[in-house]
Amino acid sequence: MKRYSQKPLILTSNLTENELYDGDDEEGATPDVAPIELKLTPEFCGVRLDKALSQLVPEYSRSRLQQWMDNGFVTVDGQPAKGKTLALGDETIVVHPQAAPEDTAFTPEAMSLSILHEDAELMIIDKPAGLVVHPAAGNWSGTLLNGLLHHFPAISGVPRAGIVHRLDKETSGLMVVAKTLQAQTDLVRQLQARTVKREYLALVWGSPQISGKIDAAIGRHPRDRIKMAVTDNASAKPAVTHYQKIATGTLDGRPVSLVRCQLETGRTHQIRVHMQSIGFTLVGDPLYGKPHLAPVFPRQALHAYRLGLIHPATGKDCEWQSVLPEDFAGLLMRAGIDSSIVG
Q1: Is the separation of the CB atoms in 93 and 68 below 8 Å?
Q2: Which of 71, 77, 150, 316 stands the most exposed, by the fewest C-beta atoms within 10 Å?
């Protein structure tokens, strides 16, 4: 079908440039974006409305415009628009722009945060499994970042709301959050210098040697873009994990081992990828483990249980330790491992 470049006449807007909408917003509405009113011209006769609209309002993606049509935020001559309807070329279209989830991702949200320590410079958070750290596709709200913005609004002036390192959604345990830009800069430098001590507990299938060091670069998996992998491609980054086996047990008749892992680096999925690379996947890991073993535990058995750093303000060595979450402690009990061995 022939495409027409002629623009329609833009009639009116309910708001002046400097006004804000004052009233009851629809859920997800963008209060500071005026409705867009368009008068179609004869050149659009026979063109599907959704195609016409994507040409006329190019600042929004076609998929977003179609979603607005489906949800009733686009009208044609006062009636809800249907994308597959063919235009006659003289209609008046009104578009009510709506916020995409990512547009409001950095919004304070009240939530219960487990804070082990807080002072003027930093917070130590004991993150539960299931909590996403930072907004991203599929998780634009309900993240730790949203909770931090509510708990301490001034942290909005610090990049990423003070988050200097992350834990996977289903990994539990300790994280440090900077409350000032100066503290964040200092903590990032400590991470780069590898002076931040991060120790994890992991339950793995099998029985690795008593201790070892895995020094293997990690990059994006060459075939599965969701995964990371030990690789020597140009984009891979150095990664070093030290591990020590501290107890053994059995789950469903299969041997398992509780290992303590200490990170020198902090690559995405580092412990999970490194332990898989030497043949010992984490119990419950749905991404790197064997599918038939995944139902044994509803998440990867990984807990960040000890965190040490130099306090950005005092210069003193500080260390915090997390109590094993109930699900992890219960898993160890099932395996016949005494959780008190962790100390």
Answers
A1: no
A2: 316
The residue behind tokens 């020597």 is 232
Q: What is the distance between the alpha carbons of residues 96 and 68, in angstroms, rounded to a whole number?
A: 8
Gyration radius (Cα) of the chain, Å: 26
- CB-CB neighbours of 88 under 10 Å: 14
Count of CB atoms situated within 10 Å of the CB of 213: 12
Q: Which residues pair with 319 in a beta bridge?
A: 308
pLDDT digits (tens, 9 = 90+) for 135-172: 887 888 899 999 999 999 999 999 889 999 999 999 99
pLDDT at 106: 85
**Residues designated as active site:** 168
Distance CA 301, CA 283 (A): 6
- Residues 16-59 pLDDT 10s: 222 222 222 232 333 346 889 999 999 999 999 888 888 888 88
What DSSP string runs through 141-183?
A: SSSHHHHHHHH-GGGGGSGGGGB-S---TT-EEEEEEESSHHH
Q: Is the dihedral of CA 151, 154, 158, 160 positive or negative?
A: positive
Sign of the C-alpha dihedral, residues 71, 76, 82, 84? Answer: negative
Q: Quote the mean pLDDT of the chain.
A: 87
DSSP letter (8 states) at residue 10: E
Which three-class secondary structure state does DSSP give residue 296? helix
Note the pTM of the prediction, 2 decimals.
Answer: 0.74
Please write the tens of the pLDDT for every residue from 225-249: 889 999 998 889 999 999 999 999 9
Residues 57, 60, 63, 65, CA torsion sign: negative
Q: How many CB atoms lie within 10 A of CB 336?
A: 12
- Contact assessment for residue 205 and residue 289, using Cβ atoms and an 8 Å cutoff: yes
Instruction: Please report, for the chain, how many H helices and E strands are present, in that order.
Output: 6, 16
Give dist(CA 133, CA 113) in Å, integer: 12
Whether residue 277 contacts residue 292, with contact meaning beta carbons closer than 8 Å, is answered with no
